[in-house]
Amino acid sequence: MPDTSILTACICLLVALFLWFRKSKASFASLPPGPKPVPFLGNVFDLTAKELWLPASRWAKQYVYVHVLGVGIVFLNTAEAACDLLDKRGSIYSDKPFLMMSGELCGCKNMVAFTPYGEQSKRQRRLLHKAFGLPVIPTYYPFLQTGTHAFLRRLVVEPSEYMKHIRRYSGGLTLSVVYGYEAVSNDDEFLGLAEECVGILSNRIASGVGIWPVDVFPSLRHLPTWMPGAGFKRNAAIWKKKMEEFVDRPYEFMKNSMKSGTHKASFCSNLLEDESIKAVDNFEFDLKWSANSMYSASIDTTITTVSHFILAMMMHTDAQRKAQEELDRVVGTERLPTFADRASLPFVECVFKESLRWAVPVPLSLPHRLMEDDLYNGMLIPKGTLIFGNIWAMLRNEAVFPDADAFRPERFLDKVSPEMERKRDPQNYVFGFGRRECPGSHLVDSSIWLLIASMLATLDVSKAVDECGNVMEPTVKFENPIFRTPSQFKCDMRPRSQKALSLIRQSEILTT
Ligand code: HEM
Protein backbone atom coordinates (compact mmCIF):
# COMPACT_ATOMS: atom_id res chain seq x y z
CA MET A 1 0.00 0.00 0.00
CA PRO A 2 1.39 3.46 -0.86
CA ASP A 3 2.34 5.65 2.11
CA THR A 4 -0.38 8.13 3.01
CA SER A 5 -0.52 10.84 5.58
CA ILE A 6 -3.30 11.25 8.10
CA LEU A 7 -4.45 14.22 6.07
CA THR A 8 -4.73 12.19 2.88
CA ALA A 9 -6.56 9.45 4.77
CA CYS A 10 -9.04 11.99 6.19
CA ILE A 11 -9.74 13.46 2.76
CA CYS A 12 -10.23 9.94 1.38
CA LEU A 13 -12.56 9.06 4.18
CA LEU A 14 -14.69 12.17 3.75
CA VAL A 15 -15.06 11.77 0.03
CA ALA A 16 -15.74 8.02 0.40
CA LEU A 17 -18.43 8.89 2.92
CA PHE A 18 -19.96 11.29 0.45
CA LEU A 19 -19.87 8.69 -2.37
CA TRP A 20 -21.34 6.05 -0.11
CA PHE A 21 -24.38 8.11 0.88
CA ARG A 22 -24.89 9.47 -2.62
CA LYS A 23 -25.62 5.97 -3.94
CA SER A 24 -29.23 4.98 -3.67
CA LYS A 25 -30.10 1.92 -1.63
CA ALA A 26 -31.61 0.35 -4.74
CA SER A 27 -28.31 0.38 -6.55
CA PHE A 28 -26.80 -1.75 -3.78
CA ALA A 29 -29.76 -4.11 -3.47
CA SER A 30 -29.01 -6.27 -6.46
CA LEU A 31 -25.25 -6.17 -6.66
CA PRO A 32 -23.52 -9.54 -7.11
CA PRO A 33 -22.56 -11.28 -3.85
CA GLY A 34 -19.27 -10.72 -2.11
CA PRO A 35 -17.50 -10.42 1.22
CA LYS A 36 -18.97 -7.93 3.64
CA PRO A 37 -17.35 -4.53 3.20
CA VAL A 38 -16.40 -2.30 6.12
CA PRO A 39 -18.08 1.11 6.16
CA PHE A 40 -16.53 3.70 3.84
CA LEU A 41 -13.35 1.81 2.97
CA GLY A 42 -15.22 -1.12 1.46
CA ASN A 43 -13.20 -4.30 0.98
CA VAL A 44 -9.76 -2.73 1.19
CA PHE A 45 -8.69 -5.31 3.80
CA ASP A 46 -9.96 -8.28 1.76
CA LEU A 47 -7.83 -7.47 -1.25
CA THR A 48 -4.54 -9.25 -0.64
CA ALA A 49 -1.52 -8.24 -2.68
CA LYS A 50 -0.53 -11.89 -3.18
CA GLU A 51 -2.60 -14.60 -4.88
CA LEU A 52 -5.80 -12.56 -4.83
CA TRP A 53 -7.33 -15.12 -7.22
CA LEU A 54 -7.58 -17.60 -4.33
CA PRO A 55 -9.91 -15.60 -2.04
CA ALA A 56 -11.74 -14.28 -5.13
CA SER A 57 -12.54 -17.91 -6.02
CA ARG A 58 -13.76 -18.68 -2.50
CA TRP A 59 -16.00 -15.64 -1.92
CA ALA A 60 -18.69 -16.78 -4.34
CA LYS A 61 -19.06 -19.46 -6.97
CA GLN A 62 -19.89 -17.47 -10.08
CA TYR A 63 -19.24 -13.78 -9.60
CA VAL A 64 -18.06 -11.66 -6.74
CA TYR A 65 -18.58 -7.96 -6.08
CA VAL A 66 -16.27 -5.95 -3.86
CA HIS A 67 -15.53 -2.27 -3.68
CA VAL A 68 -12.57 -0.17 -2.67
CA LEU A 69 -13.39 3.38 -1.61
CA GLY A 70 -16.47 3.28 -3.84
CA VAL A 71 -14.77 1.74 -6.91
CA GLY A 72 -16.69 -1.43 -7.76
CA ILE A 73 -14.80 -4.57 -8.73
CA VAL A 74 -16.31 -7.78 -10.10
CA PHE A 75 -14.44 -11.08 -10.32
CA LEU A 76 -15.96 -13.42 -12.89
CA ASN A 77 -15.23 -16.94 -11.67
CA THR A 78 -16.82 -18.95 -14.47
CA ALA A 79 -16.12 -19.21 -18.18
CA GLU A 80 -19.84 -18.74 -18.86
CA ALA A 81 -19.94 -15.37 -17.11
CA ALA A 82 -16.71 -14.24 -18.83
CA CYS A 83 -18.10 -15.28 -22.21
CA ASP A 84 -21.54 -13.70 -21.59
CA LEU A 85 -20.11 -10.37 -20.48
CA LEU A 86 -16.60 -9.84 -21.83
CA ASP A 87 -17.19 -11.59 -25.19
CA LYS A 88 -20.88 -11.21 -26.02
CA ARG A 89 -21.31 -7.76 -24.50
CA GLY A 90 -17.85 -6.66 -25.60
CA SER A 91 -19.11 -3.30 -26.86
CA ILE A 92 -19.57 -2.14 -23.25
CA TYR A 93 -17.04 -4.37 -21.46
CA SER A 94 -13.83 -3.53 -23.34
CA ASP A 95 -12.85 -0.21 -21.84
CA LYS A 96 -9.89 0.20 -19.49
CA PRO A 97 -10.00 2.09 -16.21
CA PHE A 98 -8.47 5.52 -16.30
CA LEU A 99 -6.16 5.36 -13.34
CA MET A 100 -4.57 8.65 -12.38
CA MET A 101 -1.62 6.92 -10.73
CA SER A 102 -0.55 4.39 -13.38
CA GLY A 103 -1.94 6.20 -16.44
CA GLU A 104 -1.15 9.83 -15.86
CA LEU A 105 1.39 10.16 -13.05
CA CYS A 106 3.45 7.11 -14.06
CA GLY A 107 3.04 7.77 -17.80
CA CYS A 108 1.55 4.39 -18.81
CA LYS A 109 -1.69 5.62 -20.37
CA ASN A 110 -0.62 4.91 -23.95
CA MET A 111 0.46 1.31 -23.34
CA VAL A 112 -2.00 -0.93 -25.17
CA ALA A 113 -3.23 -2.65 -22.01
CA PHE A 114 -4.15 0.77 -20.55
CA THR A 115 -5.67 2.60 -23.55
CA PRO A 116 -9.42 3.27 -23.32
CA TYR A 117 -11.68 1.42 -25.74
CA GLY A 118 -11.95 3.62 -28.81
CA GLU A 119 -10.05 4.87 -31.83
CA GLN A 120 -6.58 4.67 -30.29
CA SER A 121 -6.98 1.13 -28.93
CA LYS A 122 -8.41 -0.02 -32.26
CA ARG A 123 -5.52 1.53 -34.22
CA GLN A 124 -2.97 -0.02 -31.85
CA ARG A 125 -4.58 -3.46 -32.00
CA ARG A 126 -4.62 -3.26 -35.82
CA LEU A 127 -0.84 -2.80 -35.74
CA LEU A 128 -0.44 -5.68 -33.28
CA HIS A 129 -2.61 -7.87 -35.45
CA LYS A 130 -0.44 -6.99 -38.42
CA ALA A 131 2.58 -8.11 -36.44
CA PHE A 132 1.19 -11.22 -34.73
CA GLY A 133 -1.96 -12.32 -36.58
CA LEU A 134 -2.19 -16.05 -37.34
CA PRO A 135 -1.14 -15.80 -41.02
CA VAL A 136 2.09 -13.93 -40.13
CA ILE A 137 3.37 -16.40 -37.53
CA PRO A 138 5.19 -18.80 -39.94
CA THR A 139 7.40 -15.87 -41.01
CA TYR A 140 8.80 -15.92 -37.45
CA TYR A 141 9.70 -19.62 -37.49
CA PRO A 142 13.39 -18.97 -38.30
CA PHE A 143 13.62 -16.44 -35.41
CA LEU A 144 11.88 -18.86 -33.06
CA GLN A 145 14.15 -21.71 -34.05
CA THR A 146 17.30 -19.61 -33.62
CA GLY A 147 16.10 -18.24 -30.27
CA THR A 148 15.13 -21.69 -28.97
CA HIS A 149 18.44 -23.29 -29.95
CA ALA A 150 20.44 -20.44 -28.39
CA PHE A 151 18.36 -20.92 -25.21
CA LEU A 152 19.23 -24.66 -25.13
CA ARG A 153 22.93 -23.87 -25.59
CA ARG A 154 22.91 -21.45 -22.66
CA LEU A 155 20.91 -23.87 -20.56
CA VAL A 156 23.34 -26.77 -20.89
CA VAL A 157 26.23 -24.52 -19.90
CA GLU A 158 24.52 -23.01 -16.85
CA PRO A 159 21.36 -25.03 -16.00
CA SER A 160 20.89 -23.59 -12.51
CA GLU A 161 20.37 -20.13 -14.07
CA TYR A 162 17.34 -21.26 -16.07
CA MET A 163 15.22 -18.24 -15.00
CA LYS A 164 17.85 -15.85 -16.37
CA HIS A 165 17.98 -17.81 -19.65
CA ILE A 166 14.20 -17.77 -20.09
CA ARG A 167 14.21 -14.01 -19.50
CA ARG A 168 16.94 -13.56 -22.09
CA TYR A 169 15.09 -15.85 -24.52
CA SER A 170 11.73 -14.07 -24.28
CA GLY A 171 13.09 -10.52 -24.06
CA GLY A 172 15.66 -11.22 -26.79
CA LEU A 173 13.07 -12.72 -29.11
CA THR A 174 10.72 -9.75 -28.76
CA LEU A 175 13.57 -7.25 -29.11
CA SER A 176 14.69 -8.84 -32.34
CA VAL A 177 11.20 -9.32 -33.78
CA VAL A 178 9.94 -5.87 -32.75
CA TYR A 179 13.03 -3.63 -33.04
CA GLY A 180 15.59 -5.74 -34.95
CA TYR A 181 17.85 -5.51 -31.91
CA GLU A 182 20.12 -8.41 -30.94
CA ALA A 183 20.63 -8.78 -27.18
CA VAL A 184 24.27 -9.71 -26.75
CA SER A 185 24.36 -10.95 -23.16
CA ASN A 186 22.19 -11.64 -20.11
CA ASP A 187 23.30 -8.22 -18.87
CA ASP A 188 22.09 -6.47 -22.01
CA GLU A 189 20.99 -2.89 -21.25
CA PHE A 190 17.57 -3.19 -22.91
CA LEU A 191 16.80 -6.52 -21.22
CA GLY A 192 17.75 -4.95 -17.89
CA LEU A 193 15.58 -1.91 -18.56
CA ALA A 194 12.60 -4.13 -19.45
CA GLU A 195 13.03 -6.22 -16.32
CA GLU A 196 13.18 -3.14 -14.12
CA CYS A 197 10.15 -1.50 -15.72
CA VAL A 198 7.94 -4.60 -15.81
CA GLY A 199 8.90 -5.14 -12.14
CA ILE A 200 7.86 -1.57 -11.27
CA LEU A 201 4.61 -1.99 -13.18
CA SER A 202 3.48 -5.25 -11.63
CA ASN A 203 5.02 -5.11 -8.14
CA ARG A 204 4.67 -1.42 -7.39
CA ILE A 205 2.25 0.47 -9.62
CA ALA A 206 -0.33 -2.32 -10.07
CA SER A 207 0.10 -4.07 -6.71
CA GLY A 208 -3.20 -5.33 -5.24
CA VAL A 209 -5.77 -4.38 -7.86
CA GLY A 210 -3.74 -1.28 -8.68
CA ILE A 211 -6.08 1.31 -7.18
CA TRP A 212 -4.44 4.17 -5.31
CA PRO A 213 -6.18 6.89 -3.30
CA VAL A 214 -5.33 9.35 -6.07
CA ASP A 215 -7.31 7.17 -8.52
CA VAL A 216 -10.42 7.61 -6.41
CA PHE A 217 -9.74 11.24 -5.53
CA PRO A 218 -7.89 12.69 -8.52
CA SER A 219 -7.53 16.08 -6.86
CA LEU A 220 -4.88 14.51 -4.60
CA ARG A 221 -2.55 14.87 -7.59
CA HIS A 222 -2.33 18.57 -6.73
CA LEU A 223 -0.69 17.84 -3.35
CA PRO A 224 2.73 19.47 -3.35
CA THR A 225 5.42 16.77 -3.70
CA TRP A 226 7.19 17.88 -0.53
CA MET A 227 4.11 17.27 1.61
CA PRO A 228 3.95 14.25 3.91
CA GLY A 229 1.57 11.79 2.27
CA ALA A 230 2.60 12.84 -1.24
CA GLY A 231 5.15 10.01 -1.40
CA PHE A 232 3.08 8.50 -4.22
CA LYS A 233 3.86 11.59 -6.35
CA ARG A 234 7.56 11.37 -5.66
CA ASN A 235 7.60 7.68 -6.60
CA ALA A 236 5.45 8.31 -9.67
CA ALA A 237 7.92 10.93 -10.97
CA ILE A 238 10.78 8.41 -10.74
CA TRP A 239 8.77 5.60 -12.30
CA LYS A 240 7.48 7.81 -15.14
CA LYS A 241 11.03 8.70 -16.13
CA LYS A 242 11.94 5.01 -16.26
CA MET A 243 8.83 4.17 -18.31
CA GLU A 244 9.65 6.90 -20.85
CA GLU A 245 13.15 5.52 -21.18
CA PHE A 246 11.68 2.03 -21.67
CA VAL A 247 9.48 3.27 -24.53
CA ASP A 248 11.97 5.62 -26.18
CA ARG A 249 15.37 3.95 -26.09
CA PRO A 250 14.78 0.74 -28.08
CA TYR A 251 12.69 2.76 -30.57
CA GLU A 252 15.48 5.34 -31.01
CA PHE A 253 17.97 2.52 -31.49
CA MET A 254 15.82 1.15 -34.31
CA LYS A 255 15.34 4.58 -35.96
CA ASN A 256 19.07 5.35 -35.82
CA SER A 257 19.98 2.00 -37.32
CA MET A 258 17.47 2.64 -40.12
CA LYS A 259 19.11 6.01 -40.78
CA SER A 260 22.56 4.48 -40.94
CA GLY A 261 21.31 1.59 -43.08
CA THR A 262 22.50 -1.01 -40.53
CA HIS A 263 19.06 -2.11 -39.37
CA LYS A 264 17.66 -5.63 -39.43
CA ALA A 265 14.09 -6.03 -40.71
CA SER A 266 11.65 -5.85 -37.81
CA PHE A 267 8.01 -5.11 -37.01
CA CYS A 268 8.87 -1.40 -36.61
CA SER A 269 11.14 -1.02 -39.62
CA ASN A 270 8.73 -2.89 -41.91
CA LEU A 271 5.86 -0.62 -40.93
CA LEU A 272 8.00 2.52 -41.17
CA GLU A 273 8.86 1.55 -44.74
CA ASP A 274 5.20 0.92 -45.63
CA GLU A 275 3.97 4.17 -47.25
CA SER A 276 0.27 3.18 -47.08
CA ILE A 277 0.33 2.75 -43.28
CA LYS A 278 2.57 5.73 -42.60
CA ALA A 279 -0.19 8.02 -43.84
CA VAL A 280 -2.55 7.01 -40.98
CA ASP A 281 -2.96 9.71 -38.29
CA ASN A 282 -0.76 9.26 -35.20
CA PHE A 283 0.99 6.35 -36.90
CA GLU A 284 4.40 6.79 -35.35
CA PHE A 285 3.05 7.48 -31.89
CA ASP A 286 0.92 4.33 -32.03
CA LEU A 287 3.82 2.32 -33.41
CA LYS A 288 6.18 3.34 -30.63
CA TRP A 289 3.69 2.47 -27.87
CA SER A 290 2.47 -0.75 -29.50
CA ALA A 291 6.06 -1.92 -29.88
CA ASN A 292 6.74 -1.26 -26.22
CA SER A 293 3.52 -3.01 -25.20
CA MET A 294 4.52 -6.22 -26.97
CA TYR A 295 7.88 -6.11 -25.35
CA SER A 296 6.54 -5.56 -21.85
CA ALA A 297 3.67 -8.04 -22.20
CA SER A 298 5.77 -10.94 -23.43
CA ILE A 299 8.46 -11.28 -20.79
CA ASP A 300 6.85 -12.27 -17.47
CA THR A 301 4.13 -14.27 -19.19
CA THR A 302 6.74 -16.41 -20.98
CA ILE A 303 8.90 -16.77 -17.87
CA THR A 304 5.86 -17.91 -15.88
CA THR A 305 4.76 -20.50 -18.43
CA VAL A 306 8.20 -21.99 -19.08
CA SER A 307 9.17 -22.16 -15.41
CA HIS A 308 5.89 -23.96 -14.65
CA PHE A 309 6.70 -26.41 -17.45
CA ILE A 310 10.12 -27.11 -15.87
CA LEU A 311 8.51 -27.50 -12.43
CA ALA A 312 5.92 -29.92 -13.86
CA MET A 313 8.54 -32.03 -15.63
CA MET A 314 10.59 -32.21 -12.46
CA MET A 315 7.61 -33.33 -10.38
CA HIS A 316 6.09 -35.64 -13.00
CA THR A 317 8.89 -37.58 -14.63
CA ASP A 318 6.36 -40.13 -15.94
CA ALA A 319 4.79 -37.47 -18.20
CA GLN A 320 8.28 -36.34 -19.21
CA ARG A 321 9.29 -39.89 -20.22
CA LYS A 322 6.09 -40.42 -22.20
CA ALA A 323 6.64 -37.20 -24.18
CA GLN A 324 10.30 -38.11 -24.75
CA GLU A 325 9.34 -41.57 -26.06
CA GLU A 326 6.97 -39.91 -28.52
CA LEU A 327 9.66 -37.49 -29.67
CA ASP A 328 12.21 -40.30 -30.08
CA ARG A 329 9.71 -42.30 -32.13
CA VAL A 330 8.57 -39.44 -34.37
CA VAL A 331 11.60 -37.14 -34.66
CA GLY A 332 14.40 -39.59 -33.81
CA THR A 333 17.63 -38.61 -32.13
CA GLU A 334 19.48 -37.29 -35.18
CA ARG A 335 17.87 -33.84 -35.30
CA LEU A 336 15.94 -31.32 -33.19
CA PRO A 337 12.14 -31.05 -33.53
CA THR A 338 10.64 -28.53 -35.94
CA PHE A 339 7.16 -27.12 -36.52
CA ALA A 340 6.67 -29.70 -39.27
CA ASP A 341 6.63 -32.40 -36.54
CA ARG A 342 3.89 -30.77 -34.46
CA ALA A 343 0.87 -32.60 -35.87
CA SER A 344 2.58 -35.97 -35.23
CA LEU A 345 3.29 -35.23 -31.56
CA PRO A 346 -0.09 -35.45 -29.77
CA PHE A 347 1.33 -36.11 -26.30
CA VAL A 348 3.77 -33.19 -26.52
CA GLU A 349 0.72 -31.09 -27.45
CA CYS A 350 -1.00 -32.33 -24.26
CA VAL A 351 2.07 -31.34 -22.19
CA PHE A 352 1.99 -27.88 -23.78
CA LYS A 353 -1.73 -27.43 -23.05
CA GLU A 354 -1.46 -28.77 -19.51
CA SER A 355 1.51 -26.47 -18.82
CA LEU A 356 -0.61 -23.45 -19.82
CA ARG A 357 -3.56 -24.68 -17.75
CA TRP A 358 -1.54 -25.55 -14.68
CA ALA A 359 0.49 -22.32 -14.84
CA VAL A 360 -2.38 -19.84 -15.37
CA PRO A 361 0.24 -17.15 -16.14
CA VAL A 362 -2.09 -14.13 -15.68
CA PRO A 363 -4.61 -15.54 -13.17
CA LEU A 364 -6.92 -12.51 -12.93
CA SER A 365 -6.37 -11.39 -16.53
CA LEU A 366 -6.25 -7.60 -16.78
CA PRO A 367 -9.13 -5.35 -15.69
CA HIS A 368 -11.82 -4.23 -18.14
CA ARG A 369 -14.05 -1.26 -17.28
CA LEU A 370 -17.80 -1.43 -17.76
CA MET A 371 -18.99 1.57 -19.81
CA GLU A 372 -22.64 1.63 -18.73
CA ASP A 373 -24.91 0.10 -16.05
CA ASP A 374 -25.65 -3.50 -16.97
CA LEU A 375 -28.08 -6.13 -15.73
CA TYR A 376 -26.91 -9.73 -15.66
CA ASN A 377 -28.90 -12.65 -14.22
CA GLY A 378 -31.03 -10.17 -12.27
CA MET A 379 -28.03 -8.37 -10.78
CA LEU A 380 -26.90 -4.85 -11.36
CA ILE A 381 -23.33 -4.24 -12.40
CA PRO A 382 -22.85 -0.49 -12.17
CA LYS A 383 -21.14 1.62 -14.84
CA GLY A 384 -17.45 2.07 -14.05
CA THR A 385 -17.08 -1.35 -12.35
CA LEU A 386 -13.74 -3.01 -13.00
CA ILE A 387 -14.19 -6.55 -14.31
CA PHE A 388 -11.55 -9.22 -13.68
CA GLY A 389 -11.90 -12.60 -15.41
CA ASN A 390 -10.69 -15.06 -12.76
CA ILE A 391 -8.88 -17.39 -15.15
CA TRP A 392 -7.42 -19.32 -12.23
CA ALA A 393 -10.91 -20.31 -11.02
CA MET A 394 -11.98 -21.29 -14.56
CA LEU A 395 -8.94 -23.51 -15.09
CA ARG A 396 -9.41 -25.17 -11.70
CA ASN A 397 -13.07 -26.00 -12.42
CA GLU A 398 -13.44 -29.66 -11.42
CA ALA A 399 -16.42 -30.17 -13.77
CA VAL A 400 -14.21 -29.49 -16.78
CA PHE A 401 -10.80 -30.47 -15.37
CA PRO A 402 -11.25 -33.34 -12.89
CA ASP A 403 -8.45 -33.44 -10.28
CA ALA A 404 -7.79 -29.87 -11.39
CA ASP A 405 -4.78 -29.17 -9.15
CA ALA A 406 -2.88 -32.14 -10.57
CA PHE A 407 -0.62 -31.89 -13.63
CA ARG A 408 -2.16 -34.55 -15.91
CA PRO A 409 -1.44 -33.97 -19.64
CA GLU A 410 -3.33 -37.14 -20.59
CA ARG A 411 -6.61 -35.46 -19.56
CA PHE A 412 -6.63 -33.94 -23.08
CA LEU A 413 -6.57 -37.41 -24.68
CA ASP A 414 -9.94 -38.41 -23.16
CA LYS A 415 -12.63 -38.57 -25.87
CA VAL A 416 -15.19 -35.80 -25.28
CA SER A 417 -17.89 -33.97 -27.22
CA PRO A 418 -16.84 -31.10 -29.54
CA GLU A 419 -18.50 -28.73 -27.02
CA MET A 420 -16.32 -30.08 -24.17
CA GLU A 421 -13.26 -30.09 -26.45
CA ARG A 422 -13.69 -26.33 -26.83
CA LYS A 423 -14.47 -25.86 -23.15
CA ARG A 424 -11.38 -27.66 -21.94
CA ASP A 425 -8.89 -25.93 -24.26
CA PRO A 426 -6.80 -23.75 -21.92
CA GLN A 427 -5.93 -21.47 -24.82
CA ASN A 428 -9.53 -20.25 -24.73
CA TYR A 429 -8.88 -18.87 -21.23
CA VAL A 430 -5.25 -18.02 -20.56
CA PHE A 431 -5.16 -15.15 -23.06
CA GLY A 432 -8.15 -13.30 -21.64
CA PHE A 433 -11.46 -12.46 -23.25
CA GLY A 434 -13.33 -10.42 -25.82
CA ARG A 435 -12.01 -7.40 -27.61
CA ARG A 436 -8.97 -7.00 -25.35
CA GLU A 437 -7.87 -10.62 -25.67
CA CYS A 438 -4.08 -11.06 -25.82
CA PRO A 439 -2.80 -10.18 -29.32
CA GLY A 440 0.33 -12.30 -28.72
CA SER A 441 -1.55 -15.61 -28.38
CA HIS A 442 -0.65 -17.00 -31.83
CA LEU A 443 3.01 -16.19 -31.34
CA VAL A 444 2.98 -17.90 -27.93
CA ASP A 445 1.29 -20.96 -29.41
CA SER A 446 4.32 -21.43 -31.68
CA SER A 447 7.15 -20.07 -29.55
CA ILE A 448 6.40 -21.93 -26.33
CA TRP A 449 5.43 -25.13 -28.13
CA LEU A 450 8.83 -25.22 -29.88
CA LEU A 451 10.65 -24.45 -26.65
CA ILE A 452 8.85 -27.25 -24.80
CA ALA A 453 9.32 -29.80 -27.59
CA SER A 454 13.04 -28.94 -27.93
CA MET A 455 13.66 -29.17 -24.18
CA LEU A 456 11.86 -32.50 -23.95
CA ALA A 457 13.83 -33.87 -26.91
CA THR A 458 17.22 -33.01 -25.48
CA LEU A 459 17.11 -32.62 -21.69
CA ASP A 460 16.22 -34.62 -18.60
CA VAL A 461 14.70 -32.58 -15.81
CA SER A 462 14.65 -33.95 -12.25
CA LYS A 463 14.74 -32.82 -8.65
CA ALA A 464 18.07 -31.48 -7.43
CA VAL A 465 20.16 -33.47 -4.95
CA ASP A 466 22.13 -31.75 -2.17
CA GLU A 467 25.78 -32.42 -1.19
CA CYS A 468 24.70 -35.30 1.08
CA GLY A 469 22.73 -37.00 -1.68
CA ASN A 470 19.31 -36.00 -0.35
CA VAL A 471 16.62 -35.19 -2.93
CA MET A 472 15.57 -31.55 -2.58
CA GLU A 473 11.80 -31.01 -2.66
CA PRO A 474 11.01 -27.67 -4.31
CA THR A 475 9.26 -24.97 -2.31
CA VAL A 476 7.50 -22.54 -4.55
CA LYS A 477 5.90 -19.22 -3.68
CA PHE A 478 3.84 -16.86 -5.81
CA GLU A 479 4.71 -13.31 -4.86
CA ASN A 480 3.86 -11.34 -7.99
CA PRO A 481 0.38 -9.76 -7.83
CA ILE A 482 -0.26 -9.94 -11.60
CA PHE A 483 1.66 -12.95 -12.93
CA ARG A 484 1.67 -16.38 -11.30
CA THR A 485 5.44 -16.61 -11.53
CA PRO A 486 6.90 -19.34 -9.32
CA SER A 487 9.84 -18.28 -7.17
CA GLN A 488 13.07 -19.81 -8.46
CA PHE A 489 13.40 -23.46 -7.36
CA LYS A 490 16.37 -25.79 -7.57
CA CYS A 491 16.28 -28.49 -10.21
CA ASP A 492 18.62 -30.76 -12.10
CA MET A 493 18.67 -30.30 -15.86
CA ARG A 494 21.12 -32.17 -18.06
CA PRO A 495 21.39 -33.42 -21.65
CA ARG A 496 19.60 -36.73 -22.18
CA SER A 497 22.65 -38.18 -23.94
CA GLN A 498 25.95 -37.30 -25.55
CA LYS A 499 24.10 -37.27 -28.86
CA ALA A 500 21.55 -34.73 -27.51
CA LEU A 501 24.39 -32.53 -26.28
CA SER A 502 26.07 -32.52 -29.67
CA LEU A 503 22.76 -31.72 -31.39
CA ILE A 504 22.41 -28.69 -29.10
CA ARG A 505 25.99 -27.59 -29.75
CA GLN A 506 25.72 -28.12 -33.50
CA SER A 507 22.57 -26.01 -33.66
CA GLU A 508 24.81 -22.92 -33.59
CA ILE A 509 26.61 -23.97 -36.76
CA LEU A 510 23.33 -24.87 -38.47
CA THR A 511 21.69 -21.53 -37.73
CA THR A 512 24.63 -19.20 -38.52
C1 HEM B 1 2.12 -17.19 -22.19
C2 HEM B 1 2.14 -15.99 -22.71
C3 HEM B 1 1.05 -14.96 -22.57
C4 HEM B 1 -0.10 -14.98 -21.82
C5 HEM B 1 -0.62 -16.09 -20.93
C6 HEM B 1 -0.78 -13.71 -22.03
C7 HEM B 1 -1.98 -13.37 -21.44
C8 HEM B 1 -2.59 -12.13 -21.59
C9 HEM B 1 -3.81 -11.74 -20.92
C10 HEM B 1 -4.61 -12.60 -19.95
C11 HEM B 1 -4.11 -10.47 -21.31
C12 HEM B 1 -5.32 -9.64 -20.88
C13 HEM B 1 -6.45 -9.83 -21.85
C14 HEM B 1 -7.73 -9.15 -21.43
O1 HEM B 1 -7.69 -7.97 -21.05
O2 HEM B 1 -8.80 -9.79 -21.49
C15 HEM B 1 -3.07 -10.05 -22.23
C16 HEM B 1 -3.04 -8.81 -22.84
C17 HEM B 1 -2.04 -8.42 -23.71
N1 HEM B 1 -1.00 -9.22 -24.20
FE1 HEM B 1 -0.58 -11.10 -23.63
N2 HEM B 1 -0.03 -12.95 -22.90
C18 HEM B 1 1.09 -13.67 -23.26
C19 HEM B 1 2.08 -13.27 -24.13
C20 HEM B 1 2.06 -12.12 -24.88
C21 HEM B 1 2.99 -11.78 -25.93
C22 HEM B 1 4.13 -12.69 -26.40
C23 HEM B 1 2.64 -10.54 -26.40
C24 HEM B 1 3.23 -9.72 -27.52
C25 HEM B 1 4.04 -10.13 -28.40
C26 HEM B 1 1.48 -10.10 -25.64
C27 HEM B 1 0.85 -8.88 -25.81
C28 HEM B 1 -0.26 -8.46 -25.07
C29 HEM B 1 -0.83 -7.11 -25.16
C30 HEM B 1 -0.31 -5.96 -26.02
C31 HEM B 1 -1.96 -7.10 -24.31
C32 HEM B 1 -2.94 -5.94 -24.07
C33 HEM B 1 -4.12 -6.07 -25.03
C34 HEM B 1 -5.21 -5.01 -24.85
O3 HEM B 1 -5.44 -4.52 -23.76
O4 HEM B 1 -5.88 -4.68 -25.86
N3 HEM B 1 1.15 -11.08 -24.73
N4 HEM B 1 -2.17 -11.09 -22.39
UniProtKB/TrEMBL annotation:
Pathway: Secondary metabolite biosynthesis. Transmembrane segments: none annotated. Heme binds at C438. Its cofactor is heme. One of its GO terms (molecular function) is iron ion binding. InterPro entries: Cyt_P450, Cyt_P450_CS, Cyt_P450_E_grp-I, Cyt_P450_sf, Cytochrome_P450_fung. The keyword Oxidoreductase applies. Residues 1-26 form the signal peptide. It comes from the Eukaryota. Keywords: Heme, Iron, Metal-binding, Monooxygenase, Oxidoreductase, Signal. Belongs to the cytochrome P450 family. This is Cytochrome P450. It comes from Gymnopilus junonius.
